[in-house]
């Protein structure tokens, strides 16, 4: 699994952090930060949830 995050699209809702806090974080302005672009397969469900709840559709998943 490869995860990408388009920070320019991020609206700082924080939903990705709630869904997968070991893969995403937020900077001081609330913009999402990708901590792990290749999370282990046991985190796939949480990362997929993070992408699904992102209101800006800023998270992409490959593989």
UniProtKB/TrEMBL annotation:
<comment type="function">
    <text>Ferredoxins are iron-sulfur proteins that transfer electrons in a wide variety of metabolic reactions.</text>
</comment>
<protein>
    <recommendedName>
        <fullName>Ferredoxin</fullName>
    </recommendedName>
</protein>
<dbReference type="GO" id="GO:0009055">
    <property type="term" value="F:electron transfer activity"/>
</dbReference>
<keyword id="KW-0003">3Fe-4S</keyword>
<dbReference type="Pfam" id="PF13459">
    <property type="entry name" value="Fer4_15"/>
</dbReference>
<dbReference type="InterPro" id="IPR001080">
    <property type="entry name" value="3Fe4S_ferredoxin"/>
</dbReference>
<keyword id="KW-0249">Electron transport</keyword>
<dbReference type="GO" id="GO:0005506">
    <property type="term" value="F:iron ion binding"/>
</dbReference>
<keyword id="KW-0411">Iron-sulfur</keyword>
<keyword id="KW-0408">Iron</keyword>
<keyword id="KW-0479">Metal-binding</keyword>
<dbReference type="GO" id="GO:0051538">
    <property type="term" value="F:3 iron, 4 sulfur cluster binding"/>
</dbReference>
<keyword id="KW-0813">Transport</keyword>
<dbReference type="InterPro" id="IPR051269">
    <property type="entry name" value="Fe-S_cluster_ET"/>
</dbReference>
